[in-house]
């Protein structure tokens, strides 16, 4: 299962829970839980079969060593197993490849992200994604999502639950299902483990395990799990320790958070899965029609995933109404681009002023261009870029309430907030943020390409964090083309400045970033300012 302590974007991520004994995880559980372990696994598989039939597409969030993923793939489901622990993933892969314990016969496809399209996979193959369940999947359209066996209790912050719910909403098709489980009352678990070692041995006596587990008292529903245990096999003893945090979640908290991401609660299945001490809830992904009904009262800053996928249909409407509906649709299209930046190749240019040359020079690298300057004037950004081969299909201002969240400094680390305040001082604080969106057509040699263009009238370091940190990514190209920060760092030396500090905190290391006159990670220069 996914046992990762999720932290804020700028904090260091600790070792995943159970890493210290991943190789022995299955053996220890079966020895100390006996037949109950397999019986409950079979019971869960039975419930899943009632929810979706093979070859349905299943995303197993927190797959661990494949307790559910492997038998589901064996039954013909198309499975994507998401697991944060690289060590647990290696065990899962080895089990699948060796055909051990009912593992699939076909080879296991392994990738950092689910890059193998479902239609190209063998029905008995699965994709293993070694990543946090709070990080977006590149694949979508799943019929069923699973997040069971206490996985949600390893997420200890409300934001982590929200991020997971958003990821699940993006991955699961409309009217698809999400089955989750969690411990709502830790007291029985504490009574079961604390001061009561759990032991077990194999029928032939050649293998045994003793687990000493203590769950320390809560601090605002947060608990410390501490385990010091040993496995003896063939006369050799392996001792290990495991320590991580857990959180007790209420039904109300889980239901409210998952429904806010675009699901509806269908049923509680706890009675069908007795004996685990967990609450089991089944959700359905809202259909497009159901999402539309909620859109008018939901702002992007409150719930981006629900802020729109409305598809307006209008016939014989007056011209004024058609224009208003078209503008509203384009507003929402713009919000969807910002919401799903991880699906785009992004160019980001703080302090851009009216330097439009990247729109001509870098369209072979990027499809989304974000310019930012808190000195900028909205009236001066007209869409007339004066560049050969670049045409503006349309341009319009985004509503202020939809752009304001990008200028909100509160999510930034305190040290960066202070630096930004020193950088911009009073004048920026007196300006209201604004944003414009345009769709451009770039024509080169008879080939045309559509581009997204944003101009943000706000401070660029704050906007960078709010744009990219939620996706744990960086822009493909980062342009630095202005002055100095208060510490005297040339912005061309971006790694030494405030923005460099943000980048180091949230950047996906696979992303490509570069200053305008600097070099990308392969050492190639990116000089487009001439």
Short description:
The chain is built from 14 helices and 18 strands.
What's the topology here?
Elements: H1 25-33, H2 35-51, E1 57-61, H3 69-74, E2 78-83, H4 86-98, E3 109-111, E4 126-130, E5 142-147, H5 158-171, E6 172-182, H6 187-193, E7 198-201, E8 207-219, E9 222-233, E10 236-247, H7 251-260, E11 263-268, E12 279-285, H8 288-294, H9 319-339, E13 346-350, H10 358-361, E14 368-372, E15 390-397, H11 400-403, H12 414-429, E16 434-444, E17 447-457, H13 460-468, E18 477-478, H14 498-506
Parallel strand pairs: 1-2, 1-5, 2-4, 3-4, 5-6, 13-14, 13-18, 14-17
Antiparallel strand pairs: 6-12, 7-8, 8-9, 9-10, 11-12, 15-16, 16-17
Helix pairs in contact: 5-7, 13-14
């Amino acid at each position: 299962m996914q046992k990762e302590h999720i932290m804020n974007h700028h904090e260091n991520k600790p070792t995943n829970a159970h890493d210290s004994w991943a190789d022995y995880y299955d053996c220890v559980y079966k020895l100390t839980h006996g037949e109950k372990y397999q019986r409950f696994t079979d019971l869960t598989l039975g419930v899943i079969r009632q929810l979706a039939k093979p070859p349905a597409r299943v995303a197993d969030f927190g797959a661990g060593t494949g307790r559910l993923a492997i038998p589901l793939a064996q039954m013909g489901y198309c499975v994507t197993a998401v697991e944060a622990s690289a060590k647990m993933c290696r065990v899962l892969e080895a089990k699948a490849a060796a055909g051990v314990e009912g593992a699939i016969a076909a080879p296991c496809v392994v990738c950092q992200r689910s890059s193998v399209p479902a239609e190209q996979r063998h029905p008995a193959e699965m994709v293993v994604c070694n990543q946090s369940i709070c990080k977006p999947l590149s694949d979508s359209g799943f019929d069923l999502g699973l997040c069971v066996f206490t996985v949600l209790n390893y997420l200890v912050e409300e934001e982590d639950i929200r991020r997971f719910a958003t990821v699940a909403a993006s991955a699961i098709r409309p009217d698809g299902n999400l089955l989750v489980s969690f411990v709502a009352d830790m007291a029985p678990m504490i009574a079961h483990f604390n001061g009561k070692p759990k032991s077990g041995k194999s029928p032939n006596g050649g293998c045994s395990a003793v687990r000493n587990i203590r769950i320390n008292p809560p601090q605002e529903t947060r608990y410390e799990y501490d385990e010091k245990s040993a496995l003896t096999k063939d006369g050799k003893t392996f001792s290990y320790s495991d320590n991580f945090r857990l959180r007790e979640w209420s039904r109300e908290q889980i239901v409210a958070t998952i429904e806010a991401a675009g699901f509806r609660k269908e049923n509680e299945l706890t009675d069908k899965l007795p004996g685990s001490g967990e609450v089991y809830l089944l959700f359905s992904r809202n259909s497009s029609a159901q999402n539309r009904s909620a859109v008018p009262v939901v702002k992007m800053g409150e719930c981006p995933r629900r802020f729109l996928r409305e598809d307006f249909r209008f016939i014989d409407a007056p011209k004024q109404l058609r224009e208003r509906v078209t503008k509203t649709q384009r507003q929402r299209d713009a919000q969807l681009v910002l919401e799903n930046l991880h699906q785009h190749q992004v160019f980001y240019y703080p302090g851009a002023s009216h330097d439009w040359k990247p729109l001509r020079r870098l369209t072979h690298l990027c499809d989304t261009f974000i310019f930012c300057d808190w000195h900028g004037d909205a009236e001066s950004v007209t869409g007339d870029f004066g560049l050969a081969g670049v045409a503006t299909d349309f341009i319009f201002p985004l509503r202020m309430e939809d752009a304001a969240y990008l200028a909100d400094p509160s999510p930034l680390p305190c040290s960066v907030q202070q630096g930004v305040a020193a950088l911009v001082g009073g004048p920026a604080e007196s300006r209201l943020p604004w944003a414009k969106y345009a769709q451009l057509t770039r024509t080169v040699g008879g080939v045309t390409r559509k581009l997204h263009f944003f101009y943000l009238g706000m401070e660029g370091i704050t906007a960078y964090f709010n744009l990219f940190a939620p996706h744990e990514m960086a822009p493909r190209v980062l342009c630095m083309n202005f002055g100095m920060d208060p510490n005297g760092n040339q912005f061309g030396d971006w790694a030494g400045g405030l923005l460099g500090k943000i980048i180091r905190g949230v950047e996906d290391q696979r992303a490509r970033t570069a200053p305008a006159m600097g070099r990308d990670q392969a050492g190639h220069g990116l000089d487009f300012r001439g």
